[in-house]
Amino acid sequence: MAARPITTTGQLADVVRAAIPAATRRTGGHPARRVFQAIRIAVNEELDQLERALDDALALLRPGGRCVVIAYHSGEDRLVKTTFTRAATDDCRCPPGLPCVCGADPQFRLVARGARRPSEEEVARNRRAESARLRVIERIPAPDHSTGDVA
Fold first, then answer.
1. Element (H or E) spanning 137, and its range?
2. In b/e form, how buried is each residue of 94-126, taking b as 16+ CB within 10 angstroms?
3. Torsion of CA 119, 120, 124, 129, to 10 degrees
4. How far apart are CA 86 and CA 64, in angstroms?
5. Could you say which of 20, 91, 110, 115 would form a disulfide bridge with 31 (CB–CB 3.0 to 4.6 Å)?
6. Which residue pairs from 90-96 have beta carbons closer than 8 angstroms and sit at least 24 positions apart in sequence?
7. Distance CA 120, CA 114 (A)
8. What are the start-end ranges of the E strands in 23-73?
């Protein structure tokens, strides 16, 4: 490996660029961008931090309270989607469309199905908005089991 040792970010960027086929390099910006993003995410433990923050935020919500998250890359969005879906279903494993028999008792509901994306107009004003995904979840009132009504 002629490129070793790599001691600067410029050298790493050059190694990444050389490793990517020329046809692939023509689109999508600098090929090292994602490498640097991955390093930053790993070093800062960003996904671990986000997971803890989501759990804490959901625990703090009162009935009617909403948690809104904007994710800027697929790793973040996947984590938010998984966390929100698990909360909205109470991790129910029953087949969709059938009554729940597993005892799940969801305390949240997804405000909108799927992620909201920025409009073309917003992306035209701010290119960095293009990757943004917005998801919303709401804590629902707990059912009053003594009367069968929602509290």
1. strand 133-139
2. eeeeeeeeeeeebbbebeeeebeebeeeeeeee
3. 40
4. 18
5. 20
6. none
7. 18
8. 66-71
